[in-house]
Amino acid sequence: MKKGIKVRWFTAYCLLLFLFSCARDTSIPFSQSKEKIRIAVLKGARDLKIGGVGITAAGIEFNKDNTALVVLEEDTLSINGKKIPDSSVIFSSENGILYLNSRPFRGKIEVIKDQRGILVVNELPLEFYITGLINNEISSKWPIEVVKTQAVIARTYALYQKKKKGAVAYHMESTVADQVYSGSIAEDDSSIYAVKETVGEVLTYNGELALTVYHSNGGGATEDSKNIWGKDYPYLRQVQSPFDKDSPNFSWMLNISPESVETALKGAGYPAVDIKNITPLSRTNSGRITRLRILHGKGELEISGEDLRKAIGYDKLKSAMFTVEMTDGLFVFNGKGSGHGVGLSQWGAKGMAQEGHSYTEILKHFYPGTSLERIY
């Protein structure tokens, strides 16, 4: 081989070796953490199917297809047609993956009989839970610094709830009531990388875990927690979030009939009939409505902007930062932002990352006064 060819080959080899050494490490598992979390992934079911490689459950034999059909019959759980005496059963598998109604979940699955039917709880290592939720809360295709940010706040929120709940059937739900989680199907290289890069990192305030709530879009400014929930957290203060304007849901409009508002309010337990007018009474500095008056056929009703959102639907009335007027027989809501507005704005964080801010800087901005700590 000629000397020039040797040099070029060696240079190419070194370049490939360098690129390989710099590549993102997306290998799993996350061996640094023994922390587990329990997530309610199904509630009120009457039947379900669990499968996997070599599935096991106490005292139960399975066929070669490794599938369990769980049914609640006459207040008794049955598995593959066989009634079991216990009120709960824990399933596991040889490779640590179970399929609940064809959807993959890591860890164990506990099936529990309760007053509403069948409750299904997924118990798994915390870091796998964080990896599985990222693409349900944001997109892992966003700048990696905002993906790391999401990993830290999701981990902190989970541990906060676990500590708060203690020894209960589950620590969180898999819905917007807590954090949206759909199992391991949402994992990808970017989410794995972001979790590994921040493994064990949480936000604290005065040595305690912070309540790291977040929302989709702050409408240009976040909100003080006391204005929304009546409780003051020193690190959940109003901050500016100018990059929110780049979000597709920064501005929105809702047209809704008085009859639909009446139905929504009745469904929420408010005695309102023949809705005539909705008038904002007070707002926060950011523009979110704290109190509003609803004039109806039997008098007046005063509720908060968040209460009205809950009644009508968070997906319809996207935030409490709105104006409302009657036009052509419809209530027309014009608003900004999406979510309760407290804590981190995900679209605002994305904008900061695109401007070159690190995840530590993003966290400091949206949770002033907190500290980033690695606890394992």
Helicity, in percent?
25-40%
Oligomer: single chain
Major β-sheet annotation: 6 strands, antiparallel
Poorly predicted tracts of residues = 1-7, 10-22
Head-to-tail CA distance between termini: 52 Å
- The number of helical segments is 9
Gyration radius (Cα, Å) is 25 Å
**Structure class:** alpha+beta
Strand content: 25-35%
| Mean pLDDT figure | 91
- The count of β-strands is 22
Tell me, what's the shape? globular
For the biggest β-sheet, the strand order reads: 5-4-3-2-7-8
Please give a handful of descriptors for the protein shown:
27% helix; 376 residues; disordered N terminus; 22 strands; alpha+beta; six-stranded antiparallel β-sheet; five-stranded mixed β-sheet; single chain
Characterise the protein shown here.
The longest helix is centred in the middle third of the chain and has 22 residues, at 144-165. The protein has helices spanning 3-22, 126-137, 144-165, 189-197, 225-229, 258-267, 305-312, 346-354, 359-366, and strands at residues 36-45, 47-52, 67-73, 76-79, 82-83, 88-91, 97-100, 103-106, 108-114, 117-125, 172-173, 201-205, 208-209, 214-215, 251-256, 277-283, 289-296, 299-303, 322-327, 330-336, 344-345, 371-374. The model is unreliable at 1-7 and 10-22 (pLDDT under 50). It starts with a helix and ends with a strand. It is an alpha+beta fold and 376 residues long. Strand 7 and strand 8 form a beta hairpin. The chain is built from 9 helices and 22 strands. It is globular and about 65 Å long.
